[in-house]
């Protein structure tokens, strides 16, 4: 790193620190704060580094933070994907690839999900694990917060969770589509250990999955619409869209919208019932 890069890195950290409030990172605001935003020692504590070392970093001293420390700072300062890339570039480090469990949902992204209520919304990673959700998603699809990581995997749930099989009107089309998606991803990166383990476990526990997996010519229902038979709310017709956000590389945001007025009213009543 050149001296200019050290100075740029320090300036960037100072600006990001000043842009955050204690409440945003889960700290008490206090009555008297002489600095705008967070204190240096607060950022250091959040990132798990010493205050003296962090002060030198902000001052543009010739400090060389590791990739792991940069990741901790990224989380402490709630950097989005572009900001993380910039931070790693300034520090002459390579931004690590996202791995299962490494996705961090910012407060802004969670707020976005919450604003979709009463429409179910969630975020899934590149291995179809549900990693964030709103209350409507819990009310409709089940309590993700009470599930293990494997149980939150959409492909696993398609075959191993009786609730999903009863909920989806066209469960077979949905499940076949999931097999097709898994097969395509596996053909592109067959050495992925997590995916290989998932396939082996599903073949071991689900005869239906094993049959469809071995057929190798699987087609399912196209994405876009769902009819669900909810045990409390009754039939709900949903249309949905999926997209990616820059701050969550390889993750997908899915929002389910009511296809008609009756479905919207049932979602509203269900959410009210679930939160009461």
UniProtKB/TrEMBL annotation:
Protein name listed in UniProt: Transcriptional regulator with XRE-family HTH domain
Segments forming domain HTH cro/C1-type: 37-84
Pfam family, one: HTH_31
InterPro entries found in the cross-reference section: Cro/C1-type_HTH, Lambda_DNA-bd_dom_sf, MLTR_LBD
Lineage of source species: Bacteria, Bacillati, Bacillota, Bacilli, Bacillales
């Amino acid at each position: 790193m050149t001296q200019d890069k050290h100075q740029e890195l320090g300036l960037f950290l100072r600006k990001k620190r000043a842009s955050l409030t204690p409440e945003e990172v889960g700290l008490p605001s206090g009555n008297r704060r002489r600095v705008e935003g967070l204190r240096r020692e607060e950022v250091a504590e959040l990132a798990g580094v010493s205050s003296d070392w962090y002060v030198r970093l902000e001052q543009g001293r010739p400090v060389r933070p590791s990739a792991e420390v940069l990741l901790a700072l990224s989380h402490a300062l709630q950097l989005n994907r572009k900001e993380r890339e910039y931070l790693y570039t300034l520090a002459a480090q390579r931004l690590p690839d996202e791995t299962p469990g490494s996705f961090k949902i910012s407060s802004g992204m969670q707020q976005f999900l919450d604003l979709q209520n009463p429409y179910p919304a969630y975020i899934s990673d590149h291995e179809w694990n549900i990693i964030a959700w709103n209350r409507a998603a819990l009310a409709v699809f089940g309590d993700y917060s009470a599930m293990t990581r494997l149980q939150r995997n959409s492909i696993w749930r398609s075959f191993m969770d009786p609730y999903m099989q009863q909920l989806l009107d066209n469960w077979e089309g949905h499940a076949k589509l999931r097999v097709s998606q898994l097969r395509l991803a596996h053909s592109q990166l067959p050495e992925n250990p997590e995916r290989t383990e998932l396939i082996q476990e599903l073949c071991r526990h689900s005869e239906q999955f094993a049959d469809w997996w071995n057929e190798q010519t699987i087609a399912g229902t196209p994405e876009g619409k769902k009819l669900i038979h909810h045990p409390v709310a009754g039939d709900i017709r949903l249309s949905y869209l999926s997209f990616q956000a820059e701050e969550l590389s390889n993750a997908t945001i899915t929002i389910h919208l009511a296809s008609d007025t009756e479905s919207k009213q049932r979602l509203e009543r269900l959410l009210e019932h679930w939160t009461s």
